[in-house]
Write a structure and sequence with these properties.
4 helices; elongated
Length: about 80
């Protein structure tokens, strides 16, 4: 299957879109970005604890206990090293 140049946007069109994107005002809320970063790092750390990530525990009570144990494990690792 061959494509013709008419089916693709021309180089001028893509440059125009890029200029429009650059001209838009970009609001950056530093505080909400920090909060989001904290949550993303927490989720990444929880992924290291596979038992918590895959949720082997079926009841909410046992799952909460595993999360607490994971936090204690992490806290002790931070204190010791």
């Amino acid at each position: 299957m061959t494509t013709t140049s008419s089916s693709w946007a021309s180089n001028g069109d893509s440059q125009q879109r890029n200029e429009e994107r650059a001209a838009r005002a970009f609001e950056f809320d530093r505080e909400s970005y920090r909060d989001r970063n904290i949550i993303e790092r927490l989720i990444g750390w929880l992924k290291e604890s596979r038992r918590v990530l895959t949720r082997f525990e079926k009841t909410a009570k046992n799952f909460l206990g595993m999360i607490k144990m994971a936090f204690i494990h992490r806290y002790l690792r931070v204190l010791c090293c």
